[in-house]
Amino acid sequence: MPRFPPHPDRRAAVVTGSSAGIGEATALALAEAGHPVVLGARRLDRLEATVATIVAAGGEAVALALDLTNNDSIDHFAAQAQDRLGPIEVVVSNAGDVLPASALGVDPDDFARQVQVNLVGAHRLVRRLGPAMVERQRGDIVFVTSDVVRVPRTYMAAYVASKTGLEGLARALQMETEGTGVRVSIVRPGPASTEQGANWPTERIDEVMADWERWGIMRHHGYLRPMDVARAVMAAVSTPRGTHLTLIEVEPEAPVVGPA
Fold first, then answer.
1. The pTM is what?
2. How far apart are alpha carbons 152 and 19 in whole angstroms?
3. CA–CA dist 79, 57 (Å, integer)
4. How confident is the model over 213-244, as pLDDT tens digits?
5. What is the residue range of 90's domain?
């Protein structure tokens, strides 16, 4: 049994992919706002360092290992999250996997892995935590997607397919939970300065960027900071009841061009 009674003022939150980047920034923002937070990712040492930062600042947080390619890991994570912090009121599905490969060039196993992390695993976790929210008639589920849904990019076939599917899942879930007290939101960020793609070979990055410029996708060289996206997530979660932010698009501002 959970150690904490279900109470609307105790809004425990789960954030996936919280060992770095947008997920870490979101976990820190939620904790600063007073949410007890469960951080989930594969790199447990990174999670524990963030938890130490939150606790040192007076917050409440727990680090739990989570591998979205492993169903048992997802199920165990969901059970442990509720056991450690009580009823989960906020779920931020942020974890993502991306490889620089074309639709015809990507290994099918790599394609399937990205779909598993970005879509199938995300659904399994929400399926584990969402029904209790509906039963309590309150809660927020936020899916962090990508602007590749609106403007597909080359060399990201699996990422485009899975993030597009994730928004389809979110849209269907919005309709199905309407009137239940559970709000489902999409936060759709543009290019961001995170660890995603940091391990791509330099020559591959140059090839990909050149192709994006050929297609007119790279309009400028501005990038979002992780906290920029975290603020959008916080807006969805913290907006007063009676308002539902269904889709928040976040794009980097273009660098200011000086006088000619």
1. 0.90
2. 27
3. 27
4. 776 777 777 789 999 999 999 999 999 999 99
5. 12-194+202-246
Burial class (CB in 10 A: 0-12, 13-18, 19+), 137: exposed
| CA neighbor of 142 nearest in space, from 177, 116, 98 | 177
- Alpha-carbon distance of 240 to 254, in angstroms, equals 31
Domain total in the chain: 1
CA distance 156 to 180: 36
Contact 237, 192 (CB under 8 A): no
Residue 6 lies in a domain: no
Residue 43 lies in a domain: yes
159: annotated active-site residue: yes
**Dist. CA 35–CA 28, nearest whole Å:** 10
Question: 111, 143, 155, 159: which is the annotated catalytic residue?
Answer: 159
Assess if residue 254 is contained within a domain: no
Estimate to the nearest angstrom the gap between the alpha carbon of 227 and the chain centroid. 13
| CATH code of 71's domain | 3.40.50.720
Q: Which residues of 48-65 are buried (b: 16+ CB within 10 A; e: fewer)?
A: eebbeebeeeebbbbbbe
Residue-wise pLDDT for 30-85, tens only, equals 999 999 999 999 999 999 999 999 999 999 999 999 999 999 999 999 999 999 99
Which among 93, 192, 104 has a CA at the least distance from the CA of 145? Answer: 93
For residue 237, is it within any domain?
yes
Q: How far is CA 201 from the centre of its chain?
A: 25
